[in-house]
């Protein structure tokens, strides 16, 4: 009988022993080493043990009786010190064992982030029973808190289990969405929402700085300054193959122990199986391929032919109630198309990835019933061209209908606010409809919904349609783009009503038909989110038009124009010298603009950070000549110099520009302040134009001098500069909160009516509240984008990633 | 094929692009998803707009100058516009972006 020694009693080696003993119980005399003081158990079922849904005894796969019956010599709780492949012996803590065949099943160990405090008591991984017991004990204390570092499969299972035990749980994840290796951002968003619903706090893009405490882990501090008190820290950030013993024994290793398709290492009579192996550059963490390996190795050891082959994998999360599924290659490599299906009412998201008429990947959330059917199509490489149209509806729904365009509105709860002006909820409108108000006019009359600014008209009509069915004929409104059936006004209203604070939330909850929008809707949605939730939403540069991303205006030849701010059109000799020097240095053409500033044209993208740096040094900041935001405040010289000037128009212009610069608006905003009715600053064709008179300030709004030419309309006359600034700011904020993206103020005012604008702004409380909300937004966005991007790290992004022409020349 | 390591995936913004200078001109590396990249010509056939500055959505890019949309799989212009951009083999390995050096060398262009 040959002597077989197996190092490590994990899931792969356990399965190997079963196969060996089934096939030929008398082939080997087996010795099994395990560093843990116990035998094989089903490690992936530790989650239900942690949550209390199962006991440890239930997940043991092989007990003492089994080892005894099969005459396996168990050396549990004993570490293997070394392996001598020349003499063919394994050296354990309690002595040597000779082998004819040796199997490494050393598995993997948890990766621990080497941050300060990682070695404090109370910091555990989630790998073995000891970890599980430590967490269970911590959970026993009432009101105890856990921090789980890592939002992957393992971390989330730990978090959900600890929450079930009644702990306050916070999950920290470094990436921008959960389980980023198995899920796309949309499914990651739904998962986060589900976890938050069960009381788990999820912090994304959270970088752990340190763990602190007096003799044990008591608090986790993040790089952004957040402090999280806790009783236990679970690190579940990943695993690394445990290969030190193999390396020390001279077995060939890459990232793990290298094996061939028969599970042979490069050393004769030495084999490896499980998470500690590397096959054709691949490592393994999920259980299915480990079982495949065990089967192959059993055959190899018995002298039979068998070959290990990589296969497609699917993932399911073992958290009760979180229904997600992913399989195949859904985010890797060119040549692919998507089919996306979203049902916001039921929280369902499905995405199929197709390549050359074959399904290659699937991500599903909320309804995974068809997961295995899709997985089968992936594995078999079935030609799906025939059923492509209805594929996403699954096997039982071939020939199905398209998604319901009204589903987003149908999904709204009764308390969702439809009309923001009059505070009317969906439930009120439905009640009115049921009470006999069956058209828009009747709804307006009975509930006041859409009776003020009117931007919610589309939504009110959709509620009518959802409630009345075929009895109500929906007027055709222009949707934002092909990604949605909703209009801009609908989207704006729903972002507020449903408190949608991320692009993923908008795509999912409003049933977007594409993976991540398009060049039409993305900039609009990005603006709506940052305007409505300045503190919660982070601006996404990748959803911006090139000029706003690069903070300069792209020209027809691909170069850029650079324009520093000149407050109220005033400059100094020093600024002019710096501008002249920069123009010479970077070969720019110089143009004086209509907005009383100086434009430097023809600057190369690579030179942008450098020219910004030079202009910053001279005290100048970006003029935002490229934004949907505040452009210029044009002024005349006013009472400072002009014999007709009635007020300090230049001074007011500068104050307004200093107040408003840096703010993002639905379209560009230009101001003018003239010192007397002769109007030298041409203020009466601006978005906001102020004419100074002896008695104070006449504020006009909604002028235009572009494709349309239109004189401003009088908003109000005020006696003081302070009042003029307050009214102007409140007007700009009202425009920011209500207008459709890419509507200039004159178009927006034409839609909502100047009377409504006047009515809102005349209410002093509301006017002040608008100014306050504007100030909150400015606390985030009033920063010089040039200074940020002239920093070396940011400036690097303006250079090419690589230059292969240099390499070739060498 | 000769795979050249041109940088890390995180050097390219998500739903964004970076440029690589090559013998066949500027090639844009588009990152359409967490781990999904494409390589294509940076130059729009319409008015030579820099495609790497366009908005990346799904597996498409929109030219910043006049909103032509290209499918990054095939390089074909979408909708009513007619035209095509060259695409190049690119792949990801352990987070590194590998571009096919042979496809972007002068010899292959000739």
TrEMBL record, chain B:
One of its GO terms (molecular function) is metal ion binding. PANTHER family: 3-PHENYLPROPIONATE_CINNAMIC ACID DIOXYGENASE FERREDOXIN SUBUNIT, FERREDOXIN-RELATED. This is Nitrite reductase small subunit. The keyword DNA repair does not apply. It comes from the Bacteria. Residues 3-99 form the Rieske domain. NCBIfam families: nirD_assim_sml (TIGR02378). GO terms for biological process: nitrate assimilation. Pfam families: Rieske_2. The keyword Oxidoreductase applies. Keywords: 2Fe-2S, Iron, Iron-sulfur, Metal-binding, Nitrate assimilation, Oxidoreductase.
């Amino acid at each position: 009988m040959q002597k077989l020694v197996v190092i490590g009693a994990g899931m792969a080696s356990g399965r190997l022993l079963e196969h060996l003993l089934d096939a030929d119980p008398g082939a080997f005399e087996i010795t099994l080493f395990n560093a843990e003081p116990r035998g094989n158990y089903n490690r992936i079922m530790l989650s239900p043990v942690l949550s209390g849904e199962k006991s440890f005894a239930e997940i043991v796969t092989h007990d003492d009786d089994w080892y005894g019956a099969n005459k396996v010599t168990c050396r549990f709780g004993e570490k293997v010190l070394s392996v001598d492949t020349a003499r063919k012996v394994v050296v354990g803590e309690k002595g040597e064992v000779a082998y004819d065949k040796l199997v490494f099943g050393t598995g993997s160990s948890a990766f621990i982030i080497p941050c300060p405090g990682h070695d404090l008591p109370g910091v555990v991984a989630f790998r073995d029973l000891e970890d599980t017991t430590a967490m269970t004990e911590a959970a026993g204390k009432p009101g105890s808190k856990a921090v789980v570092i890592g939002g992957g499969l393992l971390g989330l299972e730990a978090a959900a289990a600890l929450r079930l035990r009644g702990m306050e749980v916070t999950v920290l994840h470094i990436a921008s969405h959960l389980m980023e290796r198995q899920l796309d951002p949309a499914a990651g968003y739904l998962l986060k929402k589900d976890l938050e619903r069960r009381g788990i706090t999820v912090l994304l893009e959270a970088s752990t700085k340190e763990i602190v405490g007096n003799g044990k882990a008591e608090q986790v501090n993040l790089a952004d300054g957040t402090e999280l008190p806790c009783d236990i820290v679970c690190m579940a950030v990943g695993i690394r193959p445990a290969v030190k013993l193999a390396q020390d024994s001279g077995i060939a290793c890459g990232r793990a122990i290298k094996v061939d398709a028969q599970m042979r290492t490069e050393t004769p009579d030495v084999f490896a199986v499980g998470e500690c192996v590397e096959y054709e550059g691949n490592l393994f963490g999920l259980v299915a391929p480990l079982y495949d390996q065990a089967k192959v190795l059993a055959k190899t050891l018995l002298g039979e032919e068998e070959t290990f082959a990589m296969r497609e994998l699917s993932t399911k999360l073992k958290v009760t109630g979180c229904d997600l599924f992913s399989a195949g290659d859904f985010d890797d490599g060119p040549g692919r198309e998507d089919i996306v299906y979203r049902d916001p009412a039921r929280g369902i998201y499905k995405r199929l990835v197709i390549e050359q008429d074959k399904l290659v990947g699937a991500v599903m959330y909320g309804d995974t019933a068809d997961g295995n059917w899709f997985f089968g199509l992936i594995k078999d490489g079935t030609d799906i061209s025939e059923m492509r149209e209805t594929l996403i509806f699954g096997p039982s729904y071939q020939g199905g209908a398209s998604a319901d365009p009204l589903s987003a509105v149908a999904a709204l709860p009764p308390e969702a606010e439809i009309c923001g002006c009059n505070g009317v909820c969906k439930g009120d409108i439905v009640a009115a409809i049921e009470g006999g108000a069956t058209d828009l006019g009747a709804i307006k009359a009975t509930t006041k919904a859409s009776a003020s600014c009117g931007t919610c008209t589309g939504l009110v009509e959709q509620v009518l349609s959802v409630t009345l069915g075929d009895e109500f004929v929906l007027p055709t409104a222009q949707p934002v783009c092909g990604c949605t059936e909703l209009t801009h006004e609908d989207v704006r209203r729903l972002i507020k009503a449903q408190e949608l604070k991320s692009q993923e939330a908008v795509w999912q909850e409003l049933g977007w038909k594409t993976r991540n929008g398009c060049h039409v809707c993305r900039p609009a949605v990005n603006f709506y989110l940052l305007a409505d939730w300045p503190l919660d939403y982070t601006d996404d540069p990748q959803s911006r038009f090139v000029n706003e991303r690069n903070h300069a205006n792209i020209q027809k030849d691909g170069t850029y124009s650079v324009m520093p701010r000149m407050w109220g059109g005033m400059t100094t000799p020093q600024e002019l010298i710096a501008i002249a020097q920069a123009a010479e240095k970077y070969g720019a053409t110089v143009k004086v603009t209509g907005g009383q500033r100086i434009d430097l044209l023809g600057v190369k993208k690579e030179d942008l950070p450098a020219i910004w740096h030079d202009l910053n040094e001279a005290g100048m900041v970006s003029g935002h000549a490229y934004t949907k935001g505040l452009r210029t405040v044009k002024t005349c010289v006013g009472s400072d110099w002009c014999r007709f000037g009635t007020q300090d128009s230049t001074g007011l212009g500068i104050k307004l520009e200093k107040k408003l610069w840096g703010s993002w608006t639905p379209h560009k905003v230009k101001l003018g302040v003239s010192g007397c009715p002769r109007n030298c600053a041409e203020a009466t064709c601006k978005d906001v134009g102020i004419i100074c008179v002896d008695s104070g300030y006449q504020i006009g709004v909604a002028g235009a001098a572009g494709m349309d030419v239109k004189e401003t309309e009088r908003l109000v006359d005020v006696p003081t500069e302070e009042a003029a600034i307050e009214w102007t700011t409140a007007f700009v904020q009202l425009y920011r909160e209500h207008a459709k993206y890419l509507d200039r103020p004159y178009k927006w005012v034409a839609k909502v009516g100047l009377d409504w604008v006047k009515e809102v702004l005349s209410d002093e409380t509301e006017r002040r509240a608008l100014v306050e909300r504007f100030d909150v937004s400015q606390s985030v966005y009033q920063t010089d984008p040039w200074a940020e991007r002239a920093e070396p790290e940011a400036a690097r992004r303006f250079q090419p990633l690589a230059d292969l022409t240099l390499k070739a020349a060498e | 094929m000769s795979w050249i390591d041109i940088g890390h995936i995180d050097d390219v913004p998500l739903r964004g692009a970076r440029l690589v200078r090559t013998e066949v001109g500027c090639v844009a590396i588009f990152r359409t998803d967490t781990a999904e990249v494409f390589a294509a010509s940076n130059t729009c056939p319409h008015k030579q707009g820099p495609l790497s500055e366009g908005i990346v959505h799904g597996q498409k890019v929109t030219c910043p100058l006049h909103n032509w949309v290209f499918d990054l799989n095939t390089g074909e212009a979408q909708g009513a516009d007619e035209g095509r951009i060259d695409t190049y083999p690119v792949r990801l390995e352990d987070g590194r972006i590998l571009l096919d050096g042979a496809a972007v060398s002068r010899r292959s262009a000739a």
